[in-house]
Design brief:
Elements lengths: L1 H7 L4 H8 L21 E6 L10 E6 L4 E7 L11 E4 L9 E7 L21 H12 L4 H17 L2 E9 L7 H12 L5 E8 L14 H11 L4 E6 L7 H18 L2 E4 L19
Parallel strand pairs: 1-4, 5-6, 6-7, 7-8, 8-9
Antiparallel strand pairs: 1-2, 2-3
Length: 287
């Protein structure tokens, strides 16, 4: 589905991945040094590359002006440029496209390891307890707390090679816009290091009464407000938390309409169910 969407916008993801990973263009070691030129820009040496023969190492030359890879050569210490260019020794590490984190919750990460929430300890380990403990933690969220834990998520992700992420921030009657406000600050802070796509997320029901929110009126208002923000690029919900099947489907329909109205991406936590007697929330046909 994602590949089809990208093709409709003129992007062939298969060809792009092949090009990025050098599957079609990387030379074999015996031919690698043909047609080489004097390096310009930055040189990454002693690197492993995807889709290349096992055990071979490479020197990759980057043109800093055009921001492209100009040459790829078999690695040899004797062949490294000596003209004072910026040279990075990869120490045989894998050189590959940066990573994308498709699903991370900035507001709920590192809860149990943060001093503010250390009193919350897992006992049963089931979903009901997780929801209960999360609710207690959210009642104590502050802007500073959210920024500290969210920043740790981003810093550790970038250190691991992540350059893009879809980051979920929850809205409900309990936390209001706290998580969203912090998420937007973190998004701006990360500019130039990590591209963060903020997803305004309804973890609690949209049409079933939850604490402080009769029939989801508050959370729907918060979601509508968030969807109108330019920096919010996606919206999402968890239909399975609704009280019955009718409301689950109503949740999906309402979120789809919201996403279309504001031209946002949409992200459902849809096929999740711990009740063996209940049918998974996967709708048939064109729904």
């Amino acid at each position: 589905m994602a590949a089809a969407f990208l093709r409709s916008h003129g992007i062939d993801i298969d060809n792009e991945m092949s090009r990025i990973q050098f599957a079609d263009s990387t030379p074999h070691p015996k031919d690698a040094n043909k047609n080489s030129t004097e390096p310009t820009g930055t040189v990454i040496s002693n690197a492993s590359l995807p889709s290349t023969p096992r055990g071979f190492l490479w020197t990759v030359q980057l043109d800093t002006h055009s921001k492209t890879i100009s040459t790829i050569q078999a690695y040899s210490p004797e062949s490294l440029p000596s003209s004072g260019l910026n040279t990075i020794d990869a120490h045989e590490a894998l050189l590959c496209p940066s990573l994308c984190h498709p699903h991370i919750h900035l507001d709920k990460a590192f809860l149990l390891s943060h001093p503010k929430h250390s009193h919350l300890q897992i006992q049963r380990g089931d979903f009901a307890e997780a929801m209960e403990m999360t609710g207690k933690a959210k009642a104590n969220f502050t802007h500073t707390d959210l920024l500290e834990r969210g920043q740790r998520v981003i810093d550790e992700s970038v250190a691991a090679g992540v350059s893009h992420m879809r980051a979920f921030v929850e809205l409900d009657a309990g936390v209001g816009n706290k998580c969203l406000d912090a998420g937007l600050v973190l998004k701006r802070r990360a500019e130039g290091r990590c591209e963060i796509q903020i997803c305004a997320f309804a973890q609690l029901p949209l049409f079933t009464t939850s604490q402080g929110d009769e029939e989801g009126k508050v959370i729907r208002g918060l979601m509508e407000e968030a969807a109108g923000k330019k920096e919010v690029e996606a919206v999402g919900s968890t239909p399975y938390v609704e009280g019955d099947r009718v409301k689950m489907e109503k949740n999906v329909e309402w979120m789809v309409d919201l996403a279309i109205e504001h031209k946002k991406h949409i992200d459902f936590h849809l096929d999740y169910n711990l009740d063996a007697e209940s049918e998974p929330m996967m709708m048939s046909g064109d729904a």
